[in-house]
Design a protein that fits this description.
D-glucose:sodium symporter activity, mainly alpha, single chain, Sodium/glucose cotransporter, about 575 residues
Length: about 575
């Protein structure tokens, strides 16, 4: 990168970080730090949602994953995103909002008891700090591959960026995070468009991509040159080969590892993507800071609508990379290194700086979001509930600020685990099915059914035990521990999410036989809003909301469009 490129990076991101420090001066209370005093409008929240959902790890890891596996991950960013945003904003988070909860974990205490609140906080901290590790590692790859820094200098810059992000998050809380995210989302969009257009032209557009893919065999199948990939992922004997053109069409793609039907792959991705918007306080925290329920719903729809086309460009970069560098992973190189290589080879001076500015913005926007959300989980659901209850709001505000630095540093611990996998997304998938998917089922059952209060712990025990057994079996440890293994259909890397949801929800349903049902609506009568939070508003208007501004119509259009788009163009 040239001096001009570095100036673009420093000016754009330096100005936004400086603005974050400016905003942090206005935060004085716990409700302002954790929930921005419930004052955030829909458009600012929507931009923040997309900036948080799309981090530098997505840009790097999704490009690499598509290079290795094709475009079936598209389901996460189309159908699953539309469903997940609407499910969270219309059916789940409003209950938390009305109860005056500070975190999504706090809701589970009202619904299922304090043990579920603790487990939810611990699971989310573990899950999201692992994602922090992905972000740190992907940013390191960018600094090495695109900028050409020495490893020592790259790590020093990463630590400095984490500390700067923590500084304005520590003092400003959610309001500072949301408004800096909103600005950073604009830089992310600009950088993504630049690299996409440059590589699109180099490949020859959509027609050029299809023509080149049609001439290439799928490298994950057994070919004349032998197997390309790890021994654990080798295809079953006798499996037929497929052309690489199938990677564009999910309905024609066959997973070479286990011959899973395309609908099975789509279903697995859908559960992962939908659950992200509920079992992830970096997103629910934003919705809980909305100035009204109307703003909450519109923000979620707006954020999803912005993020979907952006992630489509990232996924196509993976396919472009496959035709430009068909032997990229033949040696020791991993596909996660593809994005910085594309940036280096196809961007000119100035554009490279803009793309790097987008990478830094994507990194910072999610660092600050995770810092504020995970510190809220630790402070409200662990520290204030179990370790130091009954303290003042000023005490918990200070504790939350200190916890922000700690949770951001935890991400570094996951780096050895992440680099042991062929692709960063493979590492994430291995963790999600253990406790995150059962927890998602518990949130669904807790808000959509009248399952008894005792059902939450029963579901977590059953779903968590199943998830842990599957994880141990993938590591070849389960048989040595208990003398047997689960059937392959249960540990299939796509069907495992269906089994996890089914076993968790099924075991919770059985508790109807032993305990009294408890509708979630009854909780409102037993709970008083925290005194420092403003009252619940249905909408911000002085008159009734007109029909054309009803969020449900926009949600319906968003979902139907994404279903049509996915099946019409990519099935």
């Amino acid at each position: 990168m040239t001096l001009w490129d570095w100036l673009i990076v420093l000016v754009l991101n330096g100005a936004i970080i400086g603005y974050g420090f400016y905003l942090s001066r206005k935060t004085t209370s716990g409700s302002e730090w954790f929930l921005a005093g419930r004052s955030l409008p829909w458009w600012g929240l929507g931009l923040s949602i997309v900036a948080t959902a799309i981090d530098n790890a997505d840009l790097v890891s999704v490009t690499g994953h598509v290079y290795n596996n094709g475009i079936h991950i598209l389901t996460v960013f189309t159908i699953a995103t539309a469903l997940g945003c609407c499910l969270s904003a219309f059916l789940i988070v409003p209950w938390m909002y009305k109860l005056g909860c500070y975190t999504n974990a706090e809701f589970l205490e009202y619904r299922f008891g304090k043990s579920l609140r603790l487990f939810s906080a611990l699971i989310q901290i573990q899950y999201r700090t692992a994602i922090l590790g992905l972000m740190v590692w992907s940013f390191y790859l960018m600094l090495i591959g695109m900028v050409g820094l020495e490893p020592t200098m790259a790590w020093a810059l990463i630590v400095l960026l984490v500390l700067l992000t923590a500084a304005y998050t520590v003092w400003g809380g959610l309001a500072s995070v949301v408004w800096t995210d909103a600005l950073q989302s604009l830089i992310i969009f600009a950088g993504s468009v630049c690299i996409f257009v440059s590589v699109w032209n180099a490949v020859g557009g959509w027609d050029g991509l299809r023509e080149k893919l049609a001439t290439l065999p799928d490298p994950q199948w057994v070919q004349e040159k032998g197997w390309v990939g790890s021994k654990e992922d080798a295809p079953p004997e006798g499996a037929e080969s497929q052309q690489l053109e199938n990677w564009i069409h999910m309905g024609e793609f066959v997973d070479p590892a286990d011959n899973t039907h395309p609908f099975g792959i789509m279903l697995g991705w859908t559960i992962i993507g939908v659950g992200y918007y509920t079992v992830n306080h970096t997103q629910t925290m934003r919705l809980m800071g909305a100035r009204s329920l109307w703003d909450m719903k519109m923000a979620s729809i707006f954020g999803a609508a912005l993020g979907i086309p952006l992630m489509l460009t990232v996924m196509l970069l993976g396919l472009f990379g496959r035709v430009l560098y068909p032997d990229f992973t033949a040696g020791d190189m991993k596909a996660d290194a593809l994005f910085p290589i594309l940036a280096n080879d196809f961007l000119t001076m100035g554009l490279k700086g803009l793309v790097m500015a987008g990478i830094v913005s994507a990194t910072v926007s999610t660092f600050d979001s995770m810092g504020s959300a995970l510190s809220a989980l630790f402070t409200r659901d662990i520290y204030a509930r179990w370790l130091r209850p009954g303290q003042s709001e000023a005490h918990y505000l200070k504790a939350g600020r200190i916890a922000t630095i700690g949770v951001l540093m935890l991400g570094f611990l996951y780096i050895p685990y992440i680099i042991s996998y062929r692709n960063m997304i493979d590492a994430t998938q291995a963790l999600v099915s253990v406790f995150v998917t059962p927890l998602f089922a518990i949130y669904l059952m807790g808000t959509l059914t009248s399952v008894p209060k005792q059902g939450g712990l029963v579901g977590l025990i059953v779903g968590g035990t199943f998830g842990m057994c599957c994880f141990l079996q993938r590591q070849d440890w389960l048989e040595s521990l208990i003398g047997t293994e689960l059937p392959e259909i249960m540990v299939n890397r796509w069907y495992v999410y269906v089994w996890s949801m089914g076993l968790t929800a099924g075991s919770m349903s059985l508790t109807y036989l032993f305990w009294k049902p408890q509708p979630v609506s009854e909780l409102i009568n037993d709970t008083v809003l925290h005194s420092e939070l403003p009252p619940v508003l249905e909408h911000p208007f002085s008159k009734p909301v007109p029909v054309w501004l009803q969020p449900r119509w926009y949600a319906l259009v968003l979902i139907l469009f994404n279903v049509w788009f996915t099946f019409y163009f990519f099935w």
